[in-house]
From TrEMBL:
This is N-formylglutamate amidohydrolase. It comes from the Bacteria. InterPro entries: N-FG_amidohydro. SUPFAM superfamilies: Zn-dependent exopeptidases. It holds the Pfam family FGase.
Length: 280
């Protein structure tokens, strides 16, 4: 069985209370996944190369948690009960679908692209529970335990949820048809991280020449809202990077700017680490 995640840790006695995670960087489908959707379409939900792009954060004494399983199998950035009842073979009281399920993008994806359903049969409660038990909860437990341990040691912890986005929204997105900026920072409209922390990140990207927007259309998903508690010095925010900056969106291959963009992210992560170091 494929391990649900990879956790890359810095040198222990130098570790900062800084954690980056990438819940959509996985591209593995367990053997029980059955779909007639093409691999090309399934890849559209993959945050391709995000783990590689941010791997330099470990050199800045931060932790990096990477999903190994595709979000098309189970979405780690959703609530565990955000389940679309349409997918099920019978009713399940546990389900509490949200706006994400309404768009076909809940815990278990119903749609891979507009008008392209993933499944042509229903799923059982047991099938979904297996995905939760084997992949979803282990990832969240690893993140939670890392954040909790760092908070206990340092009195504060800073968490960045890393994503990539299509260069243009499609009909499943609230910005359908619109071209997207280089970088979107999501702090749930200023409620999931300190203003100072987010400003440090925004300034770093702007200094490297990138167009930065906050909270439109991405405010931060379940991971950001669930693990943030600013009043208790627990800060979570999301960084979305435009795929056009570093990859060919049709072939899912790095483009000529990949190495340069990776270097810029290393520079940004150094600025973030410098800020966190000043807080502890």
């Amino acid at each position: 069985m494929t391990l649900p995640y990879t956790l890359i840790s810095p040198v222990k006695n130098q570790a900062l209370p800084l954690v980056f995670d990438s819940p959509h960087s996985g591209d593995v489908f367990p053997a029980d996944f059955v779909s007639k959707v093409s691999n090309q379409d399934l890849k559209t939900g993959w945050d391709a190369f995000v783990g590689e792009l941010w791997q330099g954060v470990v050199d800045q004494n931060a932790y990096l948690l990477l999903a190994n399983i595709s979000r098309m199998y189970v979405d780690l950035n959703r609530a565990p009960n955000d389940i679309d009842p349409v997918l099920l073979d019978k009713a399940w009281d546990y389900c509490q679908p949200t706006k994400y399920s309404d768009r076909g993008m809940g815990l278990i994806r119903r749609m891979v692209l507009p008008d392209v359903p993933i499944y042509d049969t229903t799923l059982s409660q047991a099938q979904i529970q297996t995905r939760l038990d084997h992949y979803y909860y282990p990832y969240h437990n690893a993140l939670m335990q890392t954040l909790d341990a760092l908070h206990q040691t340092h009195g504060g912890v800073w968490h960045i949820d890393c994503h990539s986005m299509k260069s243009r929204g499609n009909r499943m997105n609230i910005d359908s048809g619109l071209l997207r900026p280089d970088i979107i920072l999501g702090d749930n409209d200023g409620t999931s991280a300190s203003a100072e922390f987010v400003q440090v990140i925004e300034d770093a990207f702007i200094e490297r020449g990138y167009k930065v927007v906050r909270n439109t259309p991405y405010k931060g998903g379940y991971l950001v809202t669930h693990y943030a508690e600013v009043a208790n010095n627990r800060h979570s925010m999301q960084i979305e990077v435009n795929r056009n900056l570093y990859m060919n969106e049709l072939s899912f291959t790095p483009n000529a700017n990949f190495t340069s963009f990776q270097a810029d992210l290393n520079w940004v992560s150094a600025k973030i680490a410098e800020y966190v170091s000043s807080q502890v």
